[in-house]
Structures are given as C-alpha cells and as structure tokens.
Amino acid sequence: MTGTEIGLRTLTYRDAVREAIREALQKDERDFLMGEDVGHYGGCFAVSKGLLEEFGPERIRDTPLSESGFVGAGIGAALGGMRPIVEVMTVNFSMLAADQIINNASVYLYMSGGQFNVPLVIRMATGGGRQLAAQHSRCLEGWYAHIPGIKILSPATIEDARGMLWTALEDPDPVLIFENSGLYNMEGTLAADAGPVDIHRARVRRAGRDVSIITYSAGLFKSLEAAQILAAEGIEAEVIDLRTLRPLDEGTFLDSVARTHRALIVDEGWRSGGISAEIASRIMEGAFYELDAPVARLCSLEAPMPYAKHMETAVMPQADRIVDLARRMVGAHG
Amino acid sequence: MAEFRMPSLGSDMEAGTLIEWRVKPGDRVQRRDVIAVVETEKAAIEIEVYEDGIVEALLVQPGRKVAVGTVMAIIRTEAATEPPVAFEPSSRPEPVKKAAPEKKAAPEPPTIQAPPEAPRIKASPYARRLAAERGVDLRRVEGTGPAGAIGAADVQRTASPTTPEAKPAPPPPAGKPASDSRAAMRRAIAAAMARSKREIPHYYLQTRIDMRRTLDWLAAENLRRPIQERILPVVPLIRAVVLALGEVPELNGFWIDGSHRIAEAIHLGFVINLRQGGLIAPALLNAEEKRLDELMADLRDLITRARSGGLRSSEMTDATITVTSLGDLGVETVFGIIYPPQVALVGFGKIIDQPWCENGMIGVRPILTATLSADHRATDGHRGGLFLDALGRRLQEPSKL
Fold it and tell me: What is the rounded CA–CA span in Å between residue B72 and residue B58?
C-alpha cells in the first residue's frame, strides 16, 4: 500500500498519537495534557511537539520531575470534572507514581461507594530494544494488568495509536495506555478519516490454521514476520493482537486455539508471573480439550536488560525464535 | 465383529460412567440382553446390546466416564469369520503386532485385567477427545510427538477413513467438571429444554374434560380390587392418550433432520419427578398393546426403577411422545416443553370440582384440564384439536378403555 491510494496517507506511530491528542483537545475543553517536558521540549519522544504553540500553556502543561505529584494532580483534576491526559515519560518512572495509580486511582470509585469516577488517562512509553539498558527498558504493562479498577491498553498498530486515546478518555475510569518506544518511528498508512476504535476486543491480525501466536505491542510485528517465514514452509500461523491486557478478551484467543489446537504466547515482558502466565492459564481453563500440544511461551529472558546490542537482542523474543518454536510445536503433526 | 459403543440415552447426554459389566468375555449375548449398567446425569441405566454374538473383549473399566460413541466392547457376531483381535493392554503395540494379531478363541478381558502399573498413555487433550469421539482405542495409536506422545494427527491417521464416525459429541463445558450429579442433571435438562425451545415451533391447545364418568367407573372398579391391584386415575388418562393417538397418529413420532417420522409403536414417556430434584421421562414401551392392568403394573415398575436406578436403555431412548401430570401438586394447567426429537407432549392438571353445563343444566363435575404442546413443523392445530377431542371422548366411555 502507498500513501497515494485514495483515502490513505502515510504517517508514523508518533504522528498518530499526536493526532489523537490534538483531536481530543479540539473536541473537548475538559481534555488537557500534562507531564515532564511535554510542552517546551515537545515531549521526550517528540510526541507532543507543536502542541504547546497550538493549545497554549493552560492545556499543554510542563510539570516538575515528580511522578507521584503530577499523577496525583491528574487524579484530582479528574475528580474535579476534567479529563486529563497525563504523560509519564516511561513505565520505568511510573514506579514513583505507583501509589497514586494503584492505591488511589484504581479504587476511588469503590472506596467512595460509587460516587467518584476517575476519568483519567495515563500514557507511558514502554519496552526495550533501544539500548537504554536495565533501568530504562522495562516492559511492565503486564504487571499493571494485575490491578482491578484500571484498564490497560497496548496499541501496536498505527490505527490503534490513533484511535484508542479518545475511547480511553470517554471511559469513566482510569485507563493506562502503553506505547512501545520502539514503535514511534514505525511508518504506516491510515485512512484519512481514521478515528476512535474499540478498546475491548483482541484482533486476529493474520488468519491461520496450524498454531495461534498470541501477542501484543511490538511482539505483534515480530510474530507477523515469523508467520511469513513459517508460511513459506507450509505452516499457517494465526497471529492475535491482544490490544487490551485488562480486561483480557479471552474469547478471541480461545476461539483461535479451538481452531488451531496450539498456542504460542509471545511477550516482551518476563515469564514468571507475567501476562503470558495469565493467558496460558486462561487457555488451560477454557480450551484444555482443544490442545494438541502444551502451551508454549516466548518471553524476555529473566535478567536485567543488557546494554550491548547483541546481548539485548538475545534476551528479547525475536522472529527466528518464534519460527523455531512454532515449527517444533507443529512438528510432524503439521 | 461389532463394536458396542456408549449409547446416547437421550438428546441431552454427552457422556456416561460405566458402573458395571453384566457380561464377561466369552459370554453369548442376544439382542436386547442387558450387558452393562451406565450412570448418566439422570440415572443408572441398564444398557442393552443390539447384536447376537459372543463378547470378545471389554474395553472400558467400570468407574470410567466415557463420551457417547466410545467403543466399550467388541461383540463377535455369529456371521463374522475373522479372527478375534487381541489388544495389548500393558504397552503400546508395535506396528508389527497390529498386523499379526494373536489367534485366540476367547481372550481374557484385556482392559480389566491390565496390571495397575500399566504405563499411562501420553496423548494431548485434543487427541484424547478426538479418539473418544471416533471410537479410536489410544492403545492402538502410534504417537509421533515428543517422547512418543500421541497427537490429534496420530489419532486421525489411525481412525480408518472407512470406519463410520461416531456422532461427534459436543465439546465439554468449559467450567468446573460435574462433580455434583444434581447440577449435572440440571445442566442436562437445561440443554434439552433450551434446544427444544430454540428449534421447535410449539403450538399449545387446551381443553377441559368432564371426568365424572371415568372417576365413577374407576371408584367402582377399585372397590372390587385388592389394594395392591387398584388403578390410579392417571392410568385411564394414559390409556386414553394411547387410544386418541390411534386416531391422530401424527403426534406419535419424531422430527429428525427436517422430516417427520411417525412411529408405529407407542412408547409413552412418562415424566417422573425424582426425590433428589430433577426429572426423568422413561417410556412405557409398546403402550398400545396394553390395557389398564398392564399399564398400571408397568407404571408402578417404571417409577420404582426410575427412583432406585435400573432403567433400561430402550426405555430412555425410544419414547415417541411424553405425558406429564402435575395434578397431584394442585396445578390446574401445564403447558409442557416437547422433549426433542419428539413432536408432542400431553399435559394433565389437577381434577377440580367445577360448575359444568350439560343439556341446559348446571351441575358440579370433576373437571380435568388437558393440554397439548405440539411441534408445528410436524402437525397443525387442526390435528392437535382432533386429538384433544378424541381424548375427551374416550374418557366418557371408561368401560371401553
């Protein structure tokens, strides 16, 4: 596809997120963006570049380096009738705001006996693969997916980067959007009239009959690449993009496993206690009698993320390892 | 050689647990002999065999729950000349062994006498499900997966394409396994009734019947009889249903695969409430051949066996119409749900003294409300009306019942 096709245009994932923020600020005066360096600097990943000039300092607000402070302010603004978009630079720094997110935002509705919704959206970058070493390469969205009371979105495609924000803002409860920093430069096409998308359903991004590869975020593109290699060998992999990690749309992947009878989970997070463990359990609970092979998982090795490029590559799931595992699972039974 | 499979004892049955074998290898059996007892969600049922022959091998151990369609035993039919197949219980046979089976007149029951330390077969859950659905014995399947594990493809390879496939059992429910038999029965009833309401376009007719003549006749008749031989009021009702079906036979039969099949014999299913909750509707077989005394004896026997276990498989599967009577609970009218694939259900309520006009006079009469639920694909209201009319008419001439 090219940008010259009618109704399609080429843009980056970063552009798509910026468009989504711009649309929200244009459509609803309660919406505003705040976070570290989102204004004058244009955002650590240049997502909000130009927005300060367009919307002014009231609605594009630079904050001090205090995640607990400005996420708490966001919760307060949401309780006060605003619909803030709070940017936490990366998930690594969200540890400093974990108390606000987990102990406050996620439970206010419950603790107030249903009186106070917190219509807050928190965006943060996540993921490794960019040689930022152990403290700046974490992939912890699966960890947040453990918490009831918040929704966890993981847009992988440009369409979802463009469309999930508005739907998240419309949701009456806190929503966390995890943007994989490795995807910001990814180019793709988008319909001219692209708009909000649902945040409740997983999507089959590639149909296949032999094995279901269940993944999300950057893992989607490695899985699609692997599926292409497998197809050349006659193995048809179905690739599922979870899109939302909480609540999990288990119906979509259980249906897929019922067709393919094999499940491989690809997760750039760690294996122990991660979202991959949750998915494997759901498959066991809901599709045990459909399984023709043990559920397999490909996750990042359980080590601090190395700085050296070749070691970082070795630690994270890659297409060749996905191919290898899927091939062994399908094996002689293909 | 014939395969004896776990029968489907009703449209709602997915699996059954073998309670006991009533035969052993080498026994000679005849069609309709009871050879096993199987526990379903509803009751313990005696299972009949459909071939004459000699029991060759018993493949399922008592206590095991197997899906409908699973091969449970091999019956050597009289006509068969092929040598018996010996199954190796303790190890997966080499392909060579399959090609040259041991020749033995009456081999020992292999499964049952298998040593308890027999190695567990490694097979994927999907492979096990497929094997159960297609009646494939996993011990005969050569596994090609890791450590010789059997996968679905291995089962598919073994299931010869010429073998008629057993009716695929629906996938097991996703939730907790049925540990509680009451919950299991509830689910079975739920499945059958939901299917009925989903598929069958019911029509309902109701009529009121003056029961004075029948009740008077019955009272006089019962006075002459010893207590054990007295006839319950429901028995003349059943008999009247049978006679009315003689006039409108379309209501007696099935709707299967888009066509209406009228049954010749009347196997009248009678709804029996079980004390632990739930219900069961075993059939009074060949009710058209029976008069009141026989029907009474059969009904008493059926209720006793339904509540204590010991119903036969044909009684569970062959019913051609169902009768439900809720009168003893004080219910005046019952509009029943048809038990698929049957096409009609007759409901009786309580007999209540009511004002009744006849020949320009008002009197008090014992009045019964009778209803018909019928499948509109098979019959129309006109025929249903004729049936209820015939039913009421028959009950005005009790001595002819």
Answer: 6
For chain A, domains (ranges, CATH) are 8-191 (3.40.50.970), 203-333 (3.40.50.920)
Would you call A291 and B172 a contact, using CB atoms and an 8 Å cutoff? no
User: B72 by DSSP, 3-state: which?
Assistant: strand
Within 8 A of B124 by CB-CB distance, chain A residues are: 261, 291-293
How many Cβ atoms from other residues are within 10 Å of residue B213's Cβ? 15
Give the gyration radius of chain A's Cα atoms: 20
Of B126, B171, B172, the CB nearest to A292: B126
Domains and CATH numbers, chain B: 2-180 (2.40.50.100), 200-400 (3.30.559.10)
| B129, B153, B171 ranked by CB distance to A333: nearest | B153
ipTM: 0.73
With beta carbons under 8 A apart, name residues in chain A contacting B174. Answer: 285-287
pLDDT digits (tens, 9 = 90+) for B13-49: 788 888 888 888 888 888 888 888 888 877 778 888 8
Q: What is the pLDDT of residues A265-312, one digit of tens each?
A: 999 999 999 999 999 999 999 999 999 999 999 999 999 999 999 999
- From the list B125, B146, B154, the residue facing A288 with the nearest CB is B125
Q: Which among B204, B202, B238 is positioned nearest to B218, based on CA atoms?
A: B238
Q: Distance between CA A294 and CA A262 in Å, rounded?
A: 7
Nearest CA in chain B to A259: B126
**pLDDT digit string (tens) for B288-329?**
999 999 999 999 889 888 877 778 888 888 899 999 998 777
Mark whether A67 is an active-site residue. yes
DSSP state string for A219-255: HHHHHHHHHHHHHHTT--EEEEE--EEETT-HHHHHH
Structure tokens at B271: 């709804």
DSSP secondary structure string for all residues of B120-160: PP-B-HHHHHHHHHHT--GGGPPP-SGGG-B-HHHHHHHS-
Rounded to whole angstroms, the Cα distance separating B206 from B77 reads: 50
| C-beta of residue B244 within 8 angstroms of C-beta of residue B391 | yes
DSSP B178-232: ---HHHHHHHHHHHHHHHHHHH--EEEEEEEEE-HHHHHHHHHHHHTS-GGG---
Residue B186: name the closest of B277, B264, B249 by CA.
B277
CA distance B154 to chain A (A): 8
Cβ contact A125:A185 at 8 Å: no
H/E stretch holding A136 reads none
Q: How close B176 comes to chain A (CA, Å)? A: 9
| Residue A293 with chain B: CB contacts under 8 Å | 124, 145, 151
Instruction: Please tell me if residue A250 touches chain B, with a CB cutoff of 8 Å.
Output: no
Whether A332 and B129 lie within 8 Å, measured CB to CB:
no
For residue range B126-180, list pLDDT tens digits in order.
999 888 888 888 888 888 888 888 999 888 888 755 444 444 444 444 444 444 6
